[in-house]
Specification:
The complex is a heterodimer of chains A (462) and B (144). Chain A has 462 residues and is of the alpha/beta class. Chain A is built from 15 helices and 19 strands. Chain A has a six-stranded mixed β-sheet with strand order 14-12-11-17-18-19, with helices on both faces. In chain A, strands 3-2-1-4-10 form a five-stranded mixed β-sheet. Chain A has a five-stranded parallel β-sheet with strand order 6-5-7-8-9, with helices on both faces. In chain A, helix 4 packs parallel to helix 5, helix 7 crosses helix 14 and helix 8 packs across helix 11. Chain A is globular and about 65 Å long. Chain B is of the alpha/beta class. Chain B is 40% helix and 22% strand. Chain B has six helices and five strands; from the N terminus they run βαβαβααβαβα. The termini of chain B are close together. The chains are: A alpha/beta (462), B alpha/beta (144). Chains A and B meet through helix 2 and strand 15 of A and strand 2 and helix 2 of B.
Chain lengths: 462, 144
Amino acid sequence: MELALLIDFGSTYTKITAVDVEATEVIATAKGLTTVETNILEGLNKALEEIKPFFGGTLPQFQSRLACSSAAGGLRMVAIGLVKELTVEAARQAALGAGARILGVYAHQLTSSEIEQIDGSCPDIILLAGGTDGGNKETILHNARMLAKTKYGNTIIIAGNKSAADEVQDILLKAGKDVRVTANVLPELNKLNVEPARDAIRATFLEKIVEAKGLRRAETYIQGVLMPTPAAVLNAAKLLSTGTEDEAGLGELIVVDIGGATTDIHSVAEGHPTRSGVTYKGLPEPFTKRTVEGDLGMRVSALSLLESIGSRRLASVTGLPESEVESYVQYVQNRVELLPENGKQWEIDTAMARLATDLAMERHAGTLENVWTPMGAMYIQHGKDLTEVPYLIGTGGVIVNHPHPRQILEGALYKQDQPTVLRPKQPKFLLDKEYILAAVGLLAEVKPTAALRLAKKYMVEA
Amino acid sequence: MVEEKKQLTLVLGVIGADVHAVGNRILEYAFTEAGFKVVNIGVMASQEEFINAAVETNANAILVSSLYGHGEIDCRGLREKAVEAGIGDIKLYVGGNLVVGKQDWQAVEKKFLAMGFDRAYPPGTMPQEAIDDLLMDFGFVQKC
């Protein structure tokens, strides 16, 4: 029997999944409270204790022991570019796709106060872009000189104009920074190239960030912390969509992941226009795209969710008085692991999740802009057209543990009164019932086909 | 041909709500063949897209085309936006059916030059004319 142990070091819990690789069977899952401050291994050990009974009281020999982590704030990044809609957006896409939490996004020449802001946010990695290859050099050089003055942002990945890269590297090396140079995130105006930057971010995560977050201690037992947890989920989404050499995937899909702090949407789709007479504008979107809504979460960000959605709307969905909804939201904020206890609380939690899904999808999906021309009405598409995507997968505690997850997931659907937002129209709803997407993303690193089969097996219809 | 020592970068596009894609492709082909680096932002391009593209690519010139007769409205303010974006001295060329109906070309040209364009071309201009002008404006001497 070939066994794999897949570990997710979270900020609150360390979750483990034990998998029989040959039978593509989840044998056991468990979680233990994470203690990043004292000893990261405590939570893992507690969880391991819990799964022992499944193996006759002693831990078996796991052939693969892989981990991802979002502990201690995950991978915290700042993205810098030149024009907001162009290299800044490309840098942002690269960082998000690598599973980072974005602390700030900066355009044009950095000012002293922006440098202070960057320093104040203590990023793990700064991604410095700007200029197409052979294009503008001035701004990235200026920004490098400014970044040279920072105290904290020590790891800088350069993914900008290749003609300026050497000089930028020199400036930062002289300032004692740890610098990596990788391919430009936007080599030409209409060519997004985020993969090399994503790889560089991930390599840096493995080398340095793992150490900084105290995860190195865990590495004696596991084979290494491979990636940030959101990157593992995105990895799983991509695998499930595109398949492997031996087995086909499901095709295009969207993953909605609602957590306590953020709501993430991952789309694995081309997003080309599905209607005729539509012209695509703006930066091309990555095939695997991730967006993170830091203001939409069930617990840590519950208050900002209330602010973004409005208590009136939240109340009207639940049918409860505004005051009751507000006081519940205030109550759950910072009570991270609190689960709803009665019918009313379920109602509010469901409404919060549904509206978070709704707004997060609205921000993720592309839009149509109606333009009147001498030739009649024309449509310009910005972002991805997701109307025909066949699968929508729900994951995250509130969805997975919900008796009627469709109630939440339907918030993502196309709306008649919002015809210009290109949300999915008739997707099949799937549920990550065993909460294993992150584990699948990890297993994909060593056994892609087994990981794919596992994912297919445990995604049930919602 | 442009001499090897410096390749000029041109931002090319069709402005406003104009969807004339074929002419745009022909221009891209002609300018690329002539040795320029062409950044084609396509049809229905806004002033901001021209400017942003020029900023990121450090372009030497912006070439605007417009065939549907509303060029005058679409082009107004482009020079000012370029100035605001810090690329005020970029060369701006415009060409096509720039105004509604049949108007006296001299007057039209004057209008566009006053708007801050360096050169304006009437309908039916061949690409070679603009290529020659670009080479001249950037100080490349044509041999023979």
